[in-house]
Protein 1
Amino acid sequence: AGFLHQKGDTYSRFGKLNEALESYKEEEEIGEKVNDRFIQARASLSLAGTYNALGKDIEAIETYERSFHQWDEGNPVERSKCRNEIGFICWKINRNNKAIENYFEAWNIAQTTSDSNENFYLRFQGARALKGLGNVYERLCKHQDALKNYEQAKNIFEEIAEEIETRSELAWTLLGIGSIVIYPVVNSESAVINLEEARDIFREIDECT
């Protein structure tokens, strides 16, 4: 199963997504045969990500949902990630209420886990959930709610920046804050500062790739 997972990851890195799908499917089947929930969960999480990369939204949502239930409560990072990914896809296809529901669950998992303050990857997922909620609320013209969630996400991304890579997520969050300038929520000076900071981060990312 480990070999199949590495094989799928390699195919994925080289853009051979259909081949990656087959490797992850085989891995999940092995997990089912030996009744190993970890293998199943790991395979289905990667399988869902591959469906997502292929633009197969419904298959991705269904597979993330399956993966969520395969991970036990001792794996909050993965469970929160599943909810965040479903939230993002639902936001992308205009299922706003479903997006909010999944983002809230991702946030709650990150918040209620005992070691959430020490677990930087879990805090990262929590911040992703807040950023996602900001995106949905902005679309729904709930600008104060959007701004509140964006600001919370920004603070967390900045707090954990020295531990894990958060630049891309931080840049998108700053972009969200800055974009609200067209509404009577924040002042122009604040919006410009956030937009310029987002621009600088995106440029830095481009230079490193």
Note: The radius of gyration is 18 Å.
Protein 2
Amino acid sequence: PLMWLAIGIASVSAAAGFGRLGVLAVLGVGGFLAFGGLVARSRTQLALAATSVIPMGIAIAVTWDAWSVRAQEARELNQSGRESLVDQALTVIREFPFFGVGPGAYARRATELIGSDVATVVHSVPLIVMAEYGVPVGILFLAWIAILGVVAIRSGAFACAVFAAIMPYFLFDLTHFAYAYGAAEFALWLGVLGFLRAHPLPWRSAAA
């Protein structure tokens, strides 16, 4: 019962936060649970997949006007903000490709390079890792994430769902790099993946 409640709350929270990353995360979780349920012919997994997606859909429908406003703001931000932040990060990476600018020095170095008053840190963990620690470290970081993805695939649908839940934030946000609560959440995520690796639920396990 607690798992059902937790998934339902997370689903509604993704809609209540008016964030596209939360929606992507929930869709990833639901997609892997649904695929795993079909493969294993598990009604429980299919029901969990529905529980992860349907409440979010209902909440989005109820708050559609607010979502429309948020979508317009997001389009304006993409046109003026995120693309320029990516270009800014790539400029920093080109200038300091091997060793980066150093931990915590991104904003200062980016400000010097682009000539603006204050540089905003790019919202992408792989890019900020490459900018602050260098391209070689960034490649190793991406390889590590890919290995975790392989571990999740080998551990079953639930592990893949856990892996998918955090990936949008890794690729398009800074939560797990720049904030203490994000680091704690990341540590918890690793712990859950480790547990599921030790206690895998095979894709073709008996239906629950």
Note: The first helix runs from residue 2 to 16.
